[in-house]
Please model this.
Amino acid sequence: MNTLLHIRQLNKHFANGRHALRDINLDVARGEMVALIGASGSGKSTLLRHIAGLVAADGATQSLVEIDGRCVQQGGRIHRDIRQVRSQVGFVFQQFNLVARLPVLVNVLVGSLHRMPWWRSWMRIFNAQERALALDALARVGIADCHAQRASTLSGGQQQRAAIARTLVQGAKVVLADEPIASLDPESSRKVMEILARINREDGCTVVVSLHQVDIAMKYCPRVVALNQGQVVFDGPSSALTPELLHALYGVQAEELLRPAGPTGPVAAEGASVHVLPQPAVVSWATRPAKAA
Model:
């Protein structure tokens, strides 16, 4: 396997004593599209933030996170060259992370700042080639006609597509999407997931997307990694995620994952408390599923 993302012995305790991540060992191949699923509070967002180097793991450990052979963090310390590594990591947040008062085009152009001299990035001076690249990215996600609007005027689905366009301009090798459809209606959710799948397929970009709905994961992601109380309890083909297996892994919390995607139904915060269940054995397949055509 041509590994792009490499994680070993990743643990995280928060100040309140909660063990958010438990001995995470995970490899993701270049060009894979992987769904990260789990009930509320399972550690999905925490794991993605550790992968991006936004949060450091427990200190005095043997933890390691690498992207494309470059260190993100090790032994509980963020690597000193993290900014260079992050330039290859696109992060799509649940709440979009756009500057509401700026035009959509400028929000998308932010993805190119890491390639600019500091003075141009500070003054937000973009040349014609950079603007053309941003317009092309907006066209790919279907909102080129919104380029001059303030970000605050877009719908939630349009804002999320603008956030994805920003990662295209960035030229990210890996896109980490943290619950990107949690606050969207079904049609907007479908468009966002299809865009992520198209980027994965056409650009060869590795995509790791955390999701609350198993039906969405099975439709778009050949491989699923399931977390329960910060521990990997399943790693294999999405086609193997039967309701019976989910109930074995999550107990009554399986109903939260089996609920069809839609605008109704609560979405709890990642840090929400959960009922402590007996930890099942990890389910894993040695052979990874092939990337979707």
Observations:
- The CA atoms of residues 198 and 204 lie 9 Å apart.
- The mean pLDDT is 85.
- The first helix runs from residue 44 to 51.
